[in-house]
Specification:
single chain; 267 residues; Rossmann fold; 2 domains; 7-stranded mixed sheet; 8 helices
Length: 267
């Protein structure tokens, strides 16, 4: 542990060595960041290139670290690695910062914050996406927390991330991840329904997928268009008044949805 060190020599810990945590640990090891890890499966680090043997407990990781990333499945598991005689909080020390990578509800986050605050240590909420690329440094991080604390640990975050976005104060990172997931999963469902509609009408699925992916490269087709149409490239070519653009598009959407319902009823 080296709490007085600058960001380049901060010691890092990772608890939970699944896809996300394992990838984070590999990246930190690759960057030669001083590293301590733990997983409930003692053998978990064995297949992770360059990652040291696990510590005996989360408390030992905390004692050895300035920044600890918690990469477990849910809030129940997060509390389990925090509490108890072998938990992170048992090994907490002044200057320790915890970075929660797990996606949990905001109510659960507040409960965990209250638990951590009693020990006088900092907790940053950090939603992540890009799990399959975690071991390649491909994570995109959405972090919430006090400016100074985020800046202090930023060198560690950058060691394992493609991008780090500081979204605001405590809770902002988790809220961003939840909202982003809502969009993402809804689009997946819409894609599934659209493909069913097309294939039932006799359209080749492969051709349909190719077409949709090509069309999605058009900025006007992006799901973000209607979050703020003023920011969308090309929208001004349709009309100079964003309100008229929204009104016109709503009419087109209604027409096309009616046509989709008719097509579904025919099959």
């Amino acid at each position: 542990m080296n709490t007085s060190a600058n960001g380049n020599t901060l010691h890092a810990g990772v608890i939970g060595l699944g896809q996300i945590g394992g990838g984070v640990a590999i990246c930190l090891a690759r960057k030669q960041r001083p590293l301590a890890v733990y997983d409930v499966r003692p053998e978990a680090a064995g297949k992770l290139d360059g990652v040291p043997a696990p510590q005996s407990s989360p408390a030992e990781v905390a004692r050895a670290s300035d920044v600890v990333m918690i990469a477990v499945l849910n809030a129940e598991q997060a509390r389990a690695v925090l509490e108890g005689p072998d938990g992170i909080l048992a090994g907490a020390h002044p200057g320790l910062t915890l970075v929660l990578l797990s996606t949990i509800s905001l109510d659960e986050l507040r409960d965990i914050e209250a638990l951590v605050r009693k020990k006088g240590i900092a907790l940053l909420d950090c939603g992540v996406t890009g799990g399959p690329l975690a071991d390649q440094g491909g994570l995109v991080c959405m972090i919430g927390g006090e400016n100074g604390e985020v800046a202090r640990v930023m060198p560690v975050l950058e060691d394992f991330s493609a991008e780090v976005h500081h979204m605001g104060q405590s809770g902002a990172g988790m809220a961003t991840k939840i909202a982003r997931n809502m969009i993402h999963f809804t689009v997946w469902r819409a894609g599934f329904e659209g493909a069913k509609l097309a294939t039932r009408a006799g359209v080749d699925l492969g051709k349909f997928i190719d077409l949709v992916e090509r069309a999605s490269q058009n900025p006007g087709a992006s799901v973000t268009t209607w979050m703020d149409a003023d920011r969308v490239a090309g929208a001004e070519r349709m009309t100079s008044d964003p309100r008229e653009l929204r009104k016109m598009t709503l009419g087109l959407q209604q027409k096309d949805l009616d046509a989709a319902r008719e097509l579904a009823d025919q099959r």
